[in-house]
Amino acid sequence: MALDKKSGYRKNFSLGVTFIVLISILFVLSLFLAFNFSKKSIENEFVSEKVNVLEQSIKPYNDFFQNKMPEISYYNGFLDSATASKFVDTIMLKYSFVSRVTFYDTEVKNMPVKDGMNVGKLSIGPKSIFQFGKNVAADSIRLFSESDTKSFKVGDDFNAMAYKLVTFVDQLDTVAVPTQEELFTNFSVVSSNKITYLNIPRREDLKVYKDMMRRRLNPSPVYQQDMLVFQLNPNKIKVVNTRPLLYQKIQVEPLTYDPIDTSDENMTTEIALPGAFSDFKLYLTSSKSYIKREIFIYFMPIALVLLLVYGVLLLVAFLIYRNLNINSKMFKLQYDFVNNLTHEFKTPVSVIKIAGNNIKSATALSQKEQQLYGKILDEEADKLNGLMNKLLAFTQIENKAIKLNQETVNIRDFIESTIESHTLKHPDFKMTYEVVGFKTFITDPVLLGSLFDNLAENAYKYSKPENKKLHMSAKLIKGVLVFRFADKGIGIASGELNNIFKKFFRIQNEYNQMGSVGLGLAFCKELVNFMEGEISVKSKVGLGTEFKIVLPYNS
Amino acid sequence: MLKRIILLVFIAAICACKRSGDVGIIPVDDFFKTQDKAYYRISPDGKSLSYLKLQDKKLDLFVENLATGKSVQLTHLTEKSISFHFWTSNNELIYYAEDDTKERKSDLFVINKDGSKQVQLSSNEKTRVRVIEDQLIDDKYIIVASNKRDSTVFDVYRLNVRNGKMEIAAKNPGNITEWMTDNKGILKIAVASDGVNETLLYRENERKPFLPVITNNFETTFQPVAFPENEPNVLYAISSVNRDKNALVALDLKTGKEKKVLFANDTLNVTETRYSRIQNKIMFVTCETWKKQKYYLDNETKLTYSKIDQLLPGTEWRIMDNDKMDNVFVVRTFTDKNPGSYYLYTVSENKLKKLTDINSSIKGESMSDMKPISFKSSDSLTINGYLTLPKGTKKTNLPVVVLPHNGPGGRNTWGYNAEVQFLANRGYAVLQVNYRGSNGYGKSFYAAGFKEWDDKIQEDVNDGVRWLIANKIANPKKIAIYGNGFGGYIALNCLYKNADLYSCGGSNSGVINLFSYLKGIPPFLKSNLQMYYEIIGNPVTDTDYLRSASPVFHADRFKLPLFIAQNPKDPRVNVAEGVQFIKELKKRNVPVTYIEKEEGPNPIKRQQGRTALYKALEEFLKNNISKK
User: Domain end: A236, A269, A288, which one?
Assistant: First the structure.
């Protein structure tokens, strides 16, 4: 990070901070908006959901109006007080808002009636009137009969319905088939808290009625009609609160109900009831704090989702930052490697250059000089060759571009030749070995040689001049080969142990100022991996290091 | 490769051959086709044959000279359709034509057999006419009954076929439901009804008043047949007076006592008899058990008629018309697998000549046998019925359609039934049950069905289904029930009360509400109202029963898929009620297939409506019978 702009690095610390600040602002902003949205939508729902409350609460009324009431027509005028009483009982049991029912056992005939309606020759009048209800005393069930006519009033519901029937019959088109709806509207009167229903006669009967209006039929017919007047009590409507969390209180109130003490603490809305209840409305109330709770319930899941998105964004940012960091470390290592390698190549090249210059500028070369330069050139060329081989082999191994040569290797001969080549190079290197349990095994001798050379080279390199010792052991233990390379060198600090097998890693110390590219141990690890083995290290600073290689045993 | 192909072709050919052994699907129309020639009448001298034939979608009157075989078309109708016709003399015919409108305006004509002279006797009458005696009296009168004075009662008139004038012969005080003349055309018998009881009235001649002879409850059959020529004041009648089953008796009209029993049997129910005016004797009586059988009262007639039996083996036959001399007959035959044909039979030559097939599309060999069955009901009454199995080898575990017959009264009879054969052809076994309350099994069986509509009658049908299941004929998971009128009523009740037994079903013009049914009894049947109250229930006193027995009040208990067909213009049905019922069923998520059908006197329209109905029914059964 400390590298300046010229090296191609960009600082991204401030970028990171900016990013985090921005998404945090966004997060807070979206939370704010989400809350506002929740508030608005709950307030809207408060106004709109009342339709559902109305629908659910009025369902029994609709069922009564559309399904139960038309059942009267099924009796075709044959209802009598006993059957009507049973019919009313089932209605009152099921529909609590029906408070009282008046039953007019009605006759349609050609004989004029005193109580009822006479139009032309057609007369409609009640034979008897009964009332049914929870609080109707037994002696007041029968309101009217032919012998007791006093309870009949002109303004009674009966006349309104009779008038409707007469009008309908008068205007009846005997050829056309009246629709179901037409019949229903003409045979029911819906007024405030009251529904009057007259059983719908058959088409044939209606035609006869029309005929009866104009002339007296012979024999004089008497048709039975049943008229029922249902008194309804809107306060008995069972209010169904479909959103108990939204509406704190729902009341049935008269249409004009508008309390003065509406404080700011309460939200209210209202909706008018339909049909016979049209003078009443549903009045829905909730306190502000009650609404707030609902808003919070609505807002919570949105906030959680936002938080999750925010968290994921942060995590992604962190991961990108970490990867960038690792990459820049890698880049630094490679940069160092190139530096080292240049340096590494520089020494032999400059030695070759000096030797070349010397040969070029010398007028004559003595035998000794010629030999010296020859030896120098030869050695330095070998060094360069070795460096290049190492680099090449490493990339090959790393890319798995080479194949294993399977040859039988005599372990003693192999170790001895290694010792020989190293002691030739470094006469002060004291190398010992032991072999236990086997003599030969199958492996690639070149790869094995590289492995042994590298480890021996390292042992030599990282030992004090007076203590350059290496003990190699090869043992067959439980079917696997265990090689140990123990030196008395400077050792490796435990904190560095994890890194020594990494590419381009070098411990910064006095021993590796030159002739090292930091590839040695990484190369060894790659080799061992390639040979399907394992490499591990134990070390104590100042006492020495032991590398342990485990290879599969093939013989 | 070639060999393999040949093998494949061979196998395919074998399969195809095997298939063709089965009976394929026969189109719906074929079962119900109406013949284009019908209503044969033979002239009194037996020399000419008249018939109605479909010409440009209208039935027209034709006369064929039997000697030459030449036909003459007498009418060219455009608006009205002929509803009946008859010969009044060897050269003259009378025909009665009605239009399609509600008023049923009618015309009456007399026409010469060669079409040369036509006289219109009445035009655009809104009343109905029934013929009581078609034989000419004084060469100019026939006796008819008409409701022209009062639409609810039929008076008797002498109709002058020369000028169309009608003079009243007997005024109906309001309670006379039937009239009868003697062999000479003199009105002697009237049957009065108060709805429940029928009284036989008799007058010796036209100058004397009608006097009551006997009174019977409507459960009792008393059906006047003929006046024997040489026995004054005696009437032959089919009677179940003091009997369970109908017998043929001779009644003394003076005392009201049975004078003689002509034919009686404890197990046989007399349904018809044939009296020959020329021979002045009973030719045979027909008794119906599971099928109709003729019993001859003497050897001479047996010899004559058994010749027809020999010419038409294995069929049931009826004499539709005859000449005055009992020499030429129009005979109609049928079997369970064939609606049959019309034949002309000449006794003197013992020759049978085929006139026409009722339905030439029906091949007897593709139809299914209708077999009589009987089983014990849960209260140990013997119930009879018919079972028709689909053609094919499989005789067990079949899908079943139960067809309860219409009512009240009535019964299923052995013979070709288009509906049954149609269903059998579609692979269903068809069960028909003559539940209690059906006619033809005696008085007590008939009375056992009174006011049992939603109870024992329905249980008889269910017991039939259980019997089929117990005998492994029915697949208990594939049973449907369907009916017309009261049959539909029984089907609907079964569908919600015995939902475990059936998987689907429906009704065609079904009665869904007994109140409406009783309210809707036509004006000319008003005198029978009390009888209906007894059979079905009294809406004033039996309100609770009628309510619980009417499907319309129980829409909330239906669950099975329903098929409902009705005619929205049917004046007898409270259509609004049907629609309300279906609406409620649909609201309760009952799968309802609703068909609005057209009906009318026009045979073409009727056929189209019928085809649509049965196609819908077929589809409905296919889709729903397995849904259990």
Answer: A236
CB-CB under 8 Å, B580 with A75: no
Chain A residues whose CB is inside 8 A of the B580 CB are 70, 73, 180
Q: How far is CA B51 from CA B48, B54, B351, in A?
A: 10, 10, 20
Q: Residue B335 has what DSSP assignment?
A: B
Tokens standing for B170?
A: 């007997």
Decide if A152 is inside a domain: yes
Q: What is the 3-state secondary structure (H, E, C) of A287-306?
A: EHHHHHHHHHHHHHHHHHHH
Do strands A222-232 and A188-191 pair parallel, antiparallel, or not at all (unpaired)? Answer: unpaired
The answer to whether the Cβ–Cβ distance between A74 and B519 falls below 8 Å is no
Residue of chain A whose alpha carbon sits nearest to that of B584: A67
Q: Where are the domains of chain B?
A: 368-624
> Dihedral sign, CA of B608, B613, B614, B619?
positive
Can you tell me which residue has the tokens 């659910």? A56
- The answer to whether the beta carbons of residues A307 and A315 sit under 8 Å apart is no
Token readout for B208 is: 């004397």
Residue that terminates a domain, selected from A174, A205, A236: A236
Domain residues for the domain of A411 are 403-552
The neighbour count for residue A453, using CB atoms within 10 Å, is 17
pLDDT in tens, B432-451: 999 999 999 999 999 999 99
Are A71 and B553 inside 8 Å of each other by CB?
yes
Residue A538 has pLDDT above 80, yes or no: yes
Q: Residue B15: what pLDDT?
A: 44
Residues of A in Cβ contact (< 8 Å) with B584: 67
- % of chain B surpassing 70 pLDDT: 93
B520 contacts on A by Cβ (under 8 Å): 202, 204
HEC letters along B41-72? EECCCCCEEEEEEEECCEEEEEEEECCCCCEE
Instruction: Classify the phi-psi angles of B104: left when phi > 0, otherwise alpha if psi is within -120 to 50, otherwise beta.
Output: left
CA distance A227 to A224: 10
Chain A CB within 8 Å of residue B149 CB: no
Give the H/E segment covering residue B226.
strand B222-226
**A221: closest CA of chain B, how far (Å):** 12
Among A199-203, B101-105, B162-166, B237-241, whose mean pLDDT is lowest? B101-105
Rounded-to-10 torsion of CA A290, A293, A295, A299 = 180
Q: In this complex, do A83 and B577 lie within 8 Å of one another by their Cβ atoms? A: no
Test the B interface: residue of A202, A207, A223, A226 with most B CBs within 10 Å: A202
Residue A305 resides in a domain: no
Across the beta sheet with A280-287, the strand order is A249-254, A280-287, A266-272
Q: Residue B582's closest chain A neighbor by CA?
A: A67
Q: At what angle do helices A367-398 and A520-530 cross, to 10 degrees?
A: 50
Interval B2-21: pLDDT, tens: 555 555 554 544 444 444 34
Contact: A204, B520; criterion CB under 8 Å: yes
Q: Is residue A181 part of a domain?
A: yes
CB atoms within 10 A of CB B374: 12
Helix (H) or strand (E) holding A108: strand A98-109
Number of domains in chain A: 2
The pLDDT confidence band at residue B496, using thresholds 50, 70 and 90, is very high
Radius of gyration from C-alpha coordinates of chain A: 55
Residue of A nearest to B544 (CA): A83
Q: Which fold would CATH assign to domain B368-624? A: Rossmann fold (3.40.50)
Mean pLDDT of chain A: 84
Partner-chain residue, chosen from B519, B552, B576, that has the shortest CB–CB distance to A180: B576
Q: What is the CATH number of the domain that holds A476?
A: 3.30.565.10
Is B543's CB within 8 Å of A78's CB? Answer: yes
Specify the 3-state DSSP secondary structure of B207: coil
Provide the percentage of residues in chain B whose pLDDT is more than 90: 50
